[in-house]
Amino acid sequence: MAELDGKVAIVTGGAASIGAAITRQLHADGARVVIAARSPEKGAAIAAELGEGALFVATDITDDAALAALVARATDAFGRLDVVVNNACSYGDGGPATPRSTWLETLNVNAVSAAILGEIARPHLTATRGNIVNIGSISGRFAHVGRWAYPVSKATLAHLTRAQALDYAADGIRVNMVTLGHIWSDPFDGLTAGDRAHADRVSKDLNLIGRVADAAEVARVVAFVASDGASYMTGSETAVDGGYGMLGPERRVPLMPLLAGQG
């Protein structure tokens, strides 16, 4: 379990799906958590569920004034800021036919907003020698058929992580990325009409664990990276992908026997 006692964290998109799991884990590990989300119903519900040490702030992360207000609410309520988790995400993507408006919206939510929030939070994170955790995706490392805008936005976030780590090091701020593979989350739930077993079957041959992950499995890694236990980590990418990223194009199929006519 990560030690986050006395820490204060902002989690964008922290009211639902993977973000909600991160919120719950950070809170369970002792952090006071500010839940930034657009949905008042979901945000208020998880804040009420967690009780003391949880605060919901309705936030449009593409609005700079809203981001400034978010940081101000966090520091006014809890007196400090130690961790920013950039989890909020847009999945807008039309592949090669993606219109400009969708390109700009996806990049704005997934990368630009993380950059702006980091800079607004920077003085407070400097004061606490805090850190930023950006939530990335395997889509930012590998080309996926028919998907352009979302993968490009996550590749951008990966490079932003390195740029932030470099420039913020002088302030004592660590910046890392947790890169996700196939996670049981709102998109997977929606695409499969809630059929987790089907999602596991589809994912089985695409990673070494042979299933999709639970959001709680992601949250535990995020909590560690955000904690003092990861004090010598910055500019890093930690994969929570079940081995997807190292499996390679041959997956589990041995090429040599096929070439030799043995399979």
Q: Explain this structure to me?
A:
It is built from 10 helices and 7 strands. By secondary structure, the chain is an alpha/beta fold. Strands 3-2-1-4-5-6-7 form a 7-stranded parallel sheet, with helices on both faces. Helix 1 crosses helix 8 and helix 3 runs parallel beside helix 4. The mean pLDDT is 95.
Name the features.
263 residues, alpha/beta, 7-stranded parallel sheet, 10 helices, 7 strands, 46% helix, 14% strand, globular
Which parts are unreliable, with pLDDT below 50 for 5 consecutive residues or more?
none
By DSSP (H or I, 4+ residues per run), the number of helices equals 10
Q: What is the first-to-last residue Cα distance?
A: 46 Å
Strand fraction band? 5-15%
Encode the helix/strand succession as letters: EHEHEHEHEHEHHHEHH
**Total DSSP E strands:** 7
The residue-averaged pLDDT reads 95
* Biggest pleated-sheet summary: 7 strands, parallel
Going across the biggest sheet, name each strand in turn. 3-2-1-4-5-6-7
Radius of gyration: 19 Å
Which percent bin holds the helix content? 40-55%
Structural class label: alpha/beta
What shape does the CA trace take? globular
